[in-house]
What does this fold into?
Amino acid sequence: MLNATEKLVSTLVNKVKTNSSVSISLENIEVRVFVVGQNYSLKEMLQLHTPYADIEIDLNGIAANNMNQGHAAVAFMSYTNMSNSSLFSATTMTNTTKLMSAVVSATLPKTQNRSLGKPVNFTLMHLAELRPNYVHSCVYWNETDWVTDGCTRIKTNHSYTVCSSSHLSTFALIMQINPRQSEDRFKVINMVVVSFGLVFLGLALLTFAFCWKNPRVINTARINLCISLLLGHLLFLLTHTLVKKKYQLACAVLAGIMHFLFLSAFVWMFIEALMLFLAIKNLSRPKSKHKEVLNWKLLTLVGYMVALIVVGVSAGVEPNGYSSEECWLVTSKGFNWSFLGPVFFILASNMILFSFISISLRSSLARLNNQVSQINKNRTIFFKTMAQFVIFGCPWILGVFTANTEALEIIFLILNSQQGTFIFIVHCVLSKEVRQQYRKLLCRSCVTTYYVTSVTEVQTTQG
It folds into this structure.
């Protein structure tokens, strides 16, 4: 219906030398059209008014674009009685969400270049009293759902709300009547588990630094995976603070940096899985037999350049793709697929590699004897193999199924924030080489302490 209305309204637009306007009022729709030509210049932002909504747009700036050659037109439509309409039923518009304004739509008919130099402001009159304890959001319709990307609420009082948008679409004000009571609990759980995982990421990196001379402990992919996850999760915690304080520019910049860090982390997960697969297949460690093939300089280049290229191309194609509100990628125009696409590809690859690794280990363990010591060793190997499922990032696939399941969402949060914990357990606590290094350190500390104590006692006796 919206597309049909917009096509009908576009027939009202004709090129003029100065300006022209059209106003239509029907029972459930108000239409305002304004056209400017080469010989007309607005002194300020154009404002169009309807009984339930207004628009403020820089039509002069749009007309000044070289492709438009001084011509531009805007059509503004206000739809009433849409609160009970099935046209805007969506997965997010449940019985706990209510439309609080008329639905408005804005287009630039018969205008070649439709890019906006300045944000467009919509003033939406309230159809009912806003309740201060509930959540009110400026949203736009993306064909299936009401979403907030690029649409912000800049002013609200008892009678109207002003929304600002960086693009034109169909907009409305919604109120969440019964916000999910567990929302705050999820935020707390998220902060706690991410902080917990950061501690073990830090311990793992300290352990790798301590054992840097041991090639059986040090692994280029593992170290860089820890670094990428550590920085990414730190910025994630920081952006939660920025969202609350509305540092929008910093928020958008950090969104781009997080895009790079988490993408590079997934690339390192794939490299780690590939190296383990090669190690098991060839019954050797990646750092020994495959040192020439898997050179650390080449791995570092691949690990970070892939992510850098994806982020660079994405930002170049869509400069406004990083949300200044959510501190992450916007979902409009499919920009979020610049992250989801590579991630799904890597997850699929890692799950295939994990399957091959599990089958190879099972075949190897089946050939071993059933002595008690060997059984205990096999159990450790089995646990380390299952832990690799988390380290490779495979549980991230659960994000596809967490939309309406709180229990699954909590599992998703816990597993994917604890990759550092599993790395520390598998590659530090359960590593024989690391335990030997720590024993040597403790022995040296004990000897030093004993020597200092003995010398002190002798000096005391002599004194």
